[in-house]
């Protein structure tokens, strides 16, 4: 029994790492995309740590903090293949459509439009400036917490939200079981609790929940459900909101 659980976790980490990053993680027989959502927060935290290490390395080398942040987030996008940024841009573009069908059609288009470009620019500026406003010792913990909490929402959204279309990756992945949502939530909360001061932790959990609910509400209103792009957008919105929150709390404490 224990061995079976450990093997499933190993497979989930391989599938999640291969999906969320460009790192070759090896093939898995019969990958369970819905189940591997439970380890998304752990992979997200590792991505945050990697981003933070790049940022700190550049900052300690004398690179101005905004430039160091921009390079660090570029490195993060290269590590992940800009997976979540693509979701943010596609959803922003889709919201420019006048009907549900047209919005879904726009989101399927690989080209980036005006709304998508504006969303990416705004997200990049907000994250870079917020990161630069944090005390350097908090960079890695804050980014790790953002990575974990931002990737907590895909399991919950895909569990309790109808699918907007009957094809695509989200549809083929299926609906995760309740234990997957619980596991992803616990993992994200534990990681955030370890990384953040108590007051930051409480505020961050609230912000992560509000961000996920806001994106879900928008997806239901405009699309009638969720797609893979909606999940990517939810991660980006949460990461941006959390970094802005941390910057505000750090400024208030200074």
Automatic annotation (TrEMBL):
<feature type="transmembrane region" description="Helical">
    <location>
        <begin position="178"/>
        <end position="194"/>
    </location>
</feature>
<keyword id="KW-1133">Transmembrane helix</keyword>
<comment type="similarity">
    <text>Belongs to the CobS family.</text>
</comment>
<feature type="transmembrane region" description="Helical">
    <location>
        <begin position="200"/>
        <end position="219"/>
    </location>
</feature>
<keyword id="KW-0812">Transmembrane</keyword>
<dbReference type="Pfam" id="PF02654">
    <property type="entry name" value="CobS"/>
</dbReference>
<feature type="transmembrane region" description="Helical">
    <location>
        <begin position="112"/>
        <end position="132"/>
    </location>
</feature>
<protein>
    <recommendedName>
        <fullName>Adenosylcobinamide-GDP ribazoletransferase</fullName>
        <ecNumber>2.7.8.26</ecNumber>
    </recommendedName>
</protein>
<keyword id="KW-0460">Magnesium</keyword>
<dbReference type="GO" id="GO:0051073">
    <property type="term" value="F:adenosylcobinamide-GDP ribazoletransferase activity"/>
</dbReference>
<keyword id="KW-0169">Cobalamin biosynthesis</keyword>
<feature type="transmembrane region" description="Helical">
    <location>
        <begin position="64"/>
        <end position="83"/>
    </location>
</feature>
<keyword id="KW-0808">Transferase</keyword>
<comment type="pathway">
    <text>Cofactor biosynthesis; adenosylcobalamin biosynthesis; adenosylcobalamin from cob(II)yrinate a,c-diamide: step 7/7.</text>
</comment>
<dbReference type="InterPro" id="IPR003805">
    <property type="entry name" value="CobS"/>
</dbReference>
<feature type="transmembrane region" description="Helical">
    <location>
        <begin position="39"/>
        <end position="58"/>
    </location>
</feature>
<keyword id="KW-0472">Membrane</keyword>
<keyword id="KW-1003">Cell membrane</keyword>
<comment type="function">
    <text>Joins adenosylcobinamide-GDP and alpha-ribazole to generate adenosylcobalamin (Ado-cobalamin). Also synthesizes adenosylcobalamin 5'-phosphate from adenosylcobinamide-GDP and alpha-ribazole 5'-phosphate.</text>
</comment>
């Amino acid at each position: 029994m224990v061995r079976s659980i450990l093997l499933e976790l190993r497979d989930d980490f391989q599938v999640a790492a291969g999906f969320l990053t460009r790192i070759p993680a090896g093939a898995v027989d019969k990958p369970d995309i819905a189940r591997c959502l439970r380890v998304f927060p752990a992979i997200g935290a590792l991505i945050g740590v990697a981003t933070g290490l790049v940022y700190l390395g550049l900052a300690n080398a004398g690179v101005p903090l905004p430039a160091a942040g921009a390079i660090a987030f570029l490195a993060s996008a290269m590590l992940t293949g800009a997976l979540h940024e693509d979701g943010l841009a596609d959803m922003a573009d889709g919201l420019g459509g006048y009907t549900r069908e047209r919005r879904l059609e726009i989101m399927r288009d690989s080209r980036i439009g005006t709304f998508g470009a504006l969303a990416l620019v705004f997200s990049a500026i907000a994250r870079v400036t917020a990161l630069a406003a944090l005390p350097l010792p908090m960079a890695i913990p804050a980014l790790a917490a953002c990575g974990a909490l931002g990737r907590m929402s895909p399991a919950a959204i895909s569990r309790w939200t109808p699918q907007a279309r009957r094809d695509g990756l989200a549809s083929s992945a299926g609906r995760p079981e309740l234990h997957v949502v619980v596991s992803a939530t616990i993992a994200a909360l534990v990681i955030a609790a370890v990384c953040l001061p108590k007051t930051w932790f409480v505020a961050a959990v609230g912000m992560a929940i509000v961000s996920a609910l806001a994106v879900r509400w928008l997806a239901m209103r405009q699309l009638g459900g969720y797609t893979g792009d909606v999940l990517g957008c939810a991660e980006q919105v949460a990461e941006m909101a959390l970094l802005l929150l941390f910057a505000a709390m750090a400024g208030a404490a200074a």
